[in-house]
Amino acid sequence: MPPKRTQMTSVDRSWLRMDTPSNPMMIAAVLVFDKPIPISRLKLILNERFLRFQRFRQRIIDEGDKVYWQDDPLFDIDNHLHRIALPGKAAKAELQALTSDLNSTSLDLRHPLWQIHYIDNYQGGCALLIRIHHCIADGISLVRVLLSLTDKTPEPGSRRIAPRKVPEQPASSAVSRLLHRALDTTEAATGQARLFMQSVRAQPNYPLKLATAATGVATDLLKLGLSPFEPKTCLKSPLSGRKQVAWAEPLDLVEVKACAKALGGTVNDILLCATTGALHRHFKASKEVIPDCGIRVAVPFNLRPLNQPIETLGNQFGLVLVCLPVEIADPIMCFRQVQENMNRLKQSYQAQVTYSLLDLFGRGPDILERRALDLLSNKASAVLTNVPGPREPVYLAGSKLVQPMFWVPQSGNIGIGISIFSYAGTVQFGITVDKAIHADPNAVMNYFHESFKALSHAALAGRQQSSTRQVS
């Protein structure tokens, strides 16, 4: 009996095609724990909670015009879980060096596309270095999958998560499949027409709203295509494929929220402003001319409801281009510009447009996607992710997770990835930089802290001055 296979979706296929030697399409994570985790217990949890998703047992079969997921008949968890130790003092610098090395190495397409390295004796505990290919799922989904391995208490008791049963599909001929597809399309069209008439009866101006939305989508597509390329700076260089990874000491989320409240903005606005300030400081330290029109970063925008259980994997997100005003030195003025840029984007359809483009490229020839990817990657200097994590500490096999870091891959000729992740009252900030780009990742981490402190001090000072004026 041949191994089970399912066809890869066009969007997931797009992410598979983006894989290059200079930019492997991997989502990477470093999870640091306060105590060692017994390997036998870690394997048990992976078998019960991670491998319940069949995708992690499947390899890719590429037949040119179609790509399939197929069960790996030789699957063995020991091919994916490796136990290693760091050299020397086994400190942060050594872990960053190992992460940089593995993030520069592509996954083996002959096997299911994930690897976990268990790192012994790291700062009295242990660390997990996890790499998963982007074609399996988007970053938000995979973060939720990894967090599903954890518990809210050190000793939750044993529990087993039964794998989701997928009903078997009966074999059918090509004619039968075509008829089913036509029937599905007809039913969908009928349903849409019925929904349209109901909406018209409920809201007489519904057709106008629909036309306005369609106009907005067309406008955003046109804006995306006509937007200028990024200015030539030290952040845009031919890539080497060697990554350098660093992460900062976490910020206190209470301080970030206090800063946001003082300025009348969101936590996301504050963190984007701190990122902008860090890049401004990098340009100044490099003695490079700062572009007067700012730079753009590509930000993944989740299109999957966060309260929807992760039953199936895959990619369900779009990308938006966010302008960071790195030319503005004053922290308050910089914040106001970031806030305005974000408010404008929230009213756009850019995420839906880019998702549709990925779906389109995944259905077409490879050369079309390559050219479109080159075009889009020339419109951003970095990829930036901001993912919310658990509000309380979590535990894996009884060990407390003390610091989590996640990175999404960069595509095309983008060589910088910036990651923001909130966890248990902290904000984690990390970066990955291609070695050909003249930027010290650890220095950028320090600039991020400096930028946030400057913004926080200015915000709180402004609030105090406002209170003084009201009293007088």
From TrEMBL:
| EC number assigned by the record | 2.3.1.20
Does the record carry Ribosomal protein as a key word? no
Cite the InterPro entries for this sequence: Acyl_transf_WS/DGAT, O-acyltransferase_WSD1-like, O-acyltransferase_WSD1_C, O-acyltransferase_WSD1_N
List, for all copies, the residue spans of the domain called O-acyltransferase WSD1 C-terminal: 314-455
* Catalytic reaction(s) noted: an acyl-CoA + a 1,2-diacyl-sn-glycerol = a triacyl-sn-glycerol + CoA
Domain (O-acyltransferase WSD1-like N-terminal): give its ranges.
8-270
Domain of life (superkingdom): Bacteria
Q: In which pathway does it act?
A: Lipid metabolism; Glycerolipid metabolism; triacylglycerol biosynthesis
Which Pfam families does this entry report, sorted A to Z? Answer: WS_DGAT_C (PF06974), WS_DGAT_cat (PF03007)
Tell me the keywords, alphabetical order.
Answer: Acyltransferase, Glycerol metabolism, Lipid biosynthesis, Lipid metabolism, Transferase
Presence of keyword Glycoprotein: no
NCBIfam families to which the protein is assigned, alphabetical: acyl_WS_DGAT
**Similarity-based family:** Belongs to the long-chain O-acyltransferase family.
Name the UniProt record assigns to this protein: diacylglycerol O-acyltransferase
Identify the species of origin.
Marinobacter salexigens
Q: Could you read off the lineage of the organism from its UniProt record?
A: Bacteria, Pseudomonadati, Pseudomonadota, Gammaproteobacteria, Pseudomonadales
